[in-house]
Amino acid sequence: MRNLKFVARFLIAAAPALVSSSAWACPACMVSNPKTAATYLGMTLVMSALPILLVGGIGYWLWRRHS
Fold first, then answer.
1. Distance between CA atoms of residues 34 and 24, nearest Å
2. Position with higher pLDDT, 61 vs 37
3. CB-based contact 32:38 (threshold 8 Å)
4. Contact 44, 50 (CB under 8 A)
5. Could you state, in order of their start, the residue ranges of all structural domains in the chain?
6. Quick one: which of 33, 31, 15 has its CA closest to 23?
7. Which of the residues 30, 41, 45, 67 has the least number of beta carbons within 10 Å of its own beta carbon?
8. Under 8 Å between Cβ of 37 and 30
9. What is the rounded CA–CA span in Å between residue 46 and residue 60?
10. What gap in Å lies between CA 5 and CA 41, rounded to an integer?
11. Is 36:29 a contact under the CB 8 Å cutoff?
């Protein structure tokens, strides 16, 4: 029974590593079309700024609510 739990946990932990290889992005995809490169850059900036803006917005909301 103990080995079965270990095997189940191992398979659950290893599944993303085995499946995700088909989802890897190709670094050459940006070379073929400049519009695609601009889209990648724009989404990188959005995803980088989103957590900072989210934490800042919550902090600002708390500050305004309690002052």
1. 20
2. 61
3. no
4. no
5. 30-67
6. 15
7. 67
8. yes
9. 20
10. 44
11. yes
